[in-house]
């Protein structure tokens, strides 16, 4: 392809963005923002996306997953069947047609695929079956950010499998799990599969595939001495035994003027933060009735809302407001505590189970209790894991203290069970002639997210190098001086020769300064570069293998004789 004929609107200057990949995609002319969280994919990005999708299709076919295309526009009635029309919340993009009928723009396709299979498959003999698609999805993000990493419109591969029993689901789940590793390895991503939470999708067994990156929205905790890895949201901390507690002491209320934060109160009372509690009040709904619950943590711990929601058996919680807290307790934040509270359930984290000398708020502004004995002074404490793990702690399942890294979620696999098939009555006859709900799995890859994640892992401040498997072009020919007819003629002869050998080639035939061409080439990111300049008269061209991105560019440049350049390209791609 002649670069003068392609649309690559590169930018010279750095752009201030909230992620490296977003800035690189804008500078290299890959995307253009249309609205917040909505982007056009320009030619270079589209070519890379096509290559990523081709790899996904190959690996899906290798495990007998069949491609389909489902509608983006989904009727409200299907979502009501699954009970997700109300549960999904504000992130579901909803609209009405001219007749007043309600629709959603699909963020996922569990409802549509379940309806499709329900209507067509009636016998277990047709199972298992796995169907997938690659298409745009929509989510009404309250705060789109990080470019393609969190947008309102995004490209996704979603697959769905249907089974007669758990053993069949487990086999497909394992096949998909390993296929995902192959896909991410082929596109050049360093990923790690971690145990995760299923969120709005549902199911009780799931893994996320996390691309390691500084900009990662998720924190991964992993054990450097074993295969253990988990999203921090699902990691269960192993609590160390409490130090010797000694004899219980009488409960005592003390004045704590003008101190509210746990660390401040601990310093004022001259106790360690480990002997200070943190009180949080959450609100939630059950059958449209507003309820409240109290969570008690150690002073230096943070509430894990996923664990809290599981304990309450609800899908969402919110922190109570200051006005609500004042109405419930007669005190404000910083002075709350569980002593003498009997009008809401009290959940106490296992890290302070059995503590006999902890300090808590007294539910009177400016006062705290000391010498609180959890089992003596709190009515019916409900113990459990309610906090986030901290770096350096053991997790349930780890062999050594965990470490933290940041990651970008690029894929997730779920065992859905009968969540959708039961509510939507997607049933088949089993081998005994009895109608049973199909057992389901679903499996997603964020295709546009994968594009951004690859860039995060394969760029420096001012340059990008695509992995060979997904590069938009295999070779980039640079002509520093278009006015030199001799080098220009040879460049186009080489261009044709490389194309005849099966390579996808971009030749920079623009009438631009050499510096502009080299800067653009660094941004475009094609891994092999051939510069035809002054050395041509001596029978050589400059060949640059940019795959070793983090080495000095000078280390990757070679002068290659003209007659050997095609063979050099071949050797680089072997």
What would your notes on this structure say?
- 26% of the residues lie in helices and 28% in strands.
- The chain has 574 residues and is α+β, with helices and mostly antiparallel strands.
- The protein has 3 domains: 17-235 and 403-456, 2-Layer Sandwich (BirA Bifunctional Protein, domain 2), CATH 3.30.930; 252-384, YbaK protein, CATH 3.90.960.10; 475-572, Anticodon-binding domain (Rossmann fold, 3-Layer(aba) Sandwich).
- The strands form 7 sheets. Strands 3, 7, 8, 9, 10, 11, 12, 21 and 24 form a 9-stranded mixed sheet that branches.
- Helix 1 (20-27) packs across helix 12.
- The longest helix has 21 residues, at 166-186.
- The model has no long low-confidence stretch (mean pLDDT 93).
- Belongs to the class-II aminoacyl-tRNA synthetase family. ProS type 1 subfamily.
- Its main location: cytoplasm.
- Look at the structure and give the CATH class of the largest domain: Alpha Beta
CATH architecture of the largest domain, by name, is 2-Layer Sandwich
The largest sheet, given as strand count, sense and whether it forms a barrel, is: 9 strands, mixed
CATH topology of the largest domain: BirA Bifunctional Protein, domain 2
Radius of gyration: 29 Å
List the domain count as a whole number: 3
CATH homology group of the largest domain: Bira Bifunctional Protein, Domain 2
pLDDT averaged over residues: 93
What are the segments in which pLDDT stays under 50 over at least 5 consecutive residues? none
